Automatic annotation (TrEMBL):
Protein name (Swiss-Prot/TrEMBL): Condensation domain-containing protein
InterPro entries: Alcohol_O-acetyltransferase (IPR052058), CAT-like_dom_sf (IPR023213)
Amino acid sequence: MNRRLRKGGGMEKIKRVKIDKERTWVFSPVSNIAFKVDIGGRISQEQLKKAIKNTIQQYEMFHQKIVLDESGIAYYEETNVLNPTIRPMNLEWSEVIKEQEKIPLRIDQGELIRFFYSQKEECMSLLIVAHHIAGDGMSFIYFLQDILRSLAGRKIEYKKLQLFDMDALPKKTKLQAPTTWLKKHMNKQWSRTGRKFDFEEYYQMYKQCWKNRETLVYTYQLKEENYDLLYQYAKANQVTINTLLTTALIKVSGELCDVGMAASIREKDFTGMGNYATGISIKYKYKEKYDFLWNAKMVQKRIYSKLNNTSKKYFLLQFMRNIEPTLIDAVYFNACGNYENKIAKTFSKMFGYDGNPKGISITNLTQLPIESKYNDIELKDLIFIPPIVLNAKRIIGVASLGKNMRLSLHINNDENVGVNSDFFYKAMEFLTNEIGK
């Protein structure tokens, strides 16, 4: 606990919480997580703004700013409640995402989220653009639920700052000796050659990262009839919908795929804000001599070999937690061309930031655990757009609301746009054809 002088000469406590699991997001230049939602009902602009501000007030996460101490350790530090940006969309929502990715959220000033809206005759469209350090995808789903509750005049419970406890990781997740030794050696080398960075340098790096870069978002909708077919197919064949989506993407890619997936580690019934996810990856090449279902079962076997193995499921978290925090920062500065250091470059290659990203990355929020109706207010549609991180070539966000599944493809706007967007739509076409047979 740190303290500061009050104007009257006394001491005022400053509440600080050390950033551990979320450290990878502090200086990430690709940290925007977005949600586009359509809300049905008679809602005025002022009602929407009031509901957003009321909800912000009830989340301790939005009473924080990010600070660094003299050694480069990062903290959430209590500050004034955020007065967020809430303004009309003057562009299509996907264009607003493109616009906002070039404007860093000022997390050192407590700016963790922005809101944009468009009022239509039949609904209110709301775009939420937030910094991933505030929470994972599911956190913002519960946050959105509270905005809708507030719009409907319902009471919202106060959500305390409750981060994932990295010290509570299962004992089975302890790293093997060779990995532990290597990391200690690299950390030692970093302590001799490395340095700490500050927010001014971060914003300069961010600007350079986005100077000649932009991203695009494509969407696909699986409506009631096709969603029913997909659900029944998955149930009858004892495979998950996520497995079927992944297998279709692998099939259409036509190559050995390195697939990254987000996996929830959130406790049941916990609806607070924070980052409660880990990551796993599988490698698989579609076997053309076998049918789709056979391949899907092979893909599922590989996925659950990771999810059902405690050590493998939590490996990424254990690996990252023992890297010096300033070295994690340095990897971004190295990858974005602002900083040269041998150790940072080694880790940049290890993380896939050196131009060799994963071909497919999926974050599936599955069936959303929230209501769709709140008195006269109705959540009619939701699209989830994860950040296109530096080690991902094509990232797909998935969210299902009732019998409506929405998918987004988030890619870099480069020479591969046509190939990557075709890949996405062909995979969805292939999947709908397979389940409809």
